[in-house]
Design brief:
Elements (H helix, E strand, L loop, with lengths): L36 H6 L9 H12 L12 E4 L4 H16 L4 E8 L2 E8 L4 E4 L9 H7 L6 E7 L4 H5 L14 E4 L11 E4 L11 E5 L6 E7 L2 E6 L2 E5 L5 E6 L6 E4 L12 E9 L7 E3 L2 E5 L3
Antiparallel strand pairs: 1-5, 2-3, 2-5, 3-4, 6-16, 7-8, 8-13, 9-12, 9-14, 10-11, 14-15, 14-16
Length: about 300
Amino acid sequence: MRAVHLRGLYKRMGRKPGSQGRTAGFGLGGDGSKDDAIDYLSTRSRFIALSSAQKLAFERFLMAFPTGTPPVVGWTSTVTSTNLAAEGSHLLLLWSFAQKGRCDLTVRGRLAGLPVFLVLDVTTGRFVWDRAMLSTVSLVDLTTALALKNSVLTFEGVPPGMGRRLAIDRDGDGILDGDEGVTAYGAASPTCAPALLLTANQSPAIGSPHFALVTRGGGARSPGLVLLSARRGPVQIVDLTIHVDLTAAILLQVGADARGTFVLRLPLPQQTRLVGTRLRAQTLTLAACGRLGLRASEGLELLMQR
């Protein structure tokens, strides 16, 4: 008989599924036939003299051995607009443990059907996106956004110090996952407030069915155009700087939502020949501040990834 360490004892409890409300383990004893510590103590002659209260105290003591990983690690809470009230206490618990350094708090899911990945920055109390040009958001911002159609978020406690890698920078190279293969160039024109901000919702990986170009800062429900070309510009037209080659450009019509955000969904085909190719993009929309009644975003260059 070999004595095993006690820090993993919780994994063995509950040999029978549902025993004492626990997830089924593989039992105690040399043959794994005992459901829990009380069962084990009750079938050994040297422990028979113990009362039920004493056996329970022994079990609680044995179950208190640290595992090296806080219990909150691995705990998830999936939230939609319909169960937000019920899951609110779980979110606050994850938040409080993250603030205490017991875990990092990551978020993944979809908002308005588009994939999102974030991690909590405990120094500011705000969530950081997987794209550098996006502003941080609060927990209230995220829960409010769940009211958008096709929105669901999963909050998860992960090992301390691993949240950034697991959520927004998986290769640890300092370039966020959503910025891999995405490079902004040029400048928005003319100078208007707020400027149009063009970005991608994720890295342009071939075979991605959810890839999209997202432009923020437009007018609510305003019309717009996205220019796509294999080559860069620039071309100056009065006070507009066009950052793509118009002679080889494709024009796609888009419309802003109530927040002034344009979304152009571009599912990427699973074709390896596209890896390493580049696509340039720019967004145009109406603007009273422009001499032509238009304004343009900066350019965006996409390098197709595997």
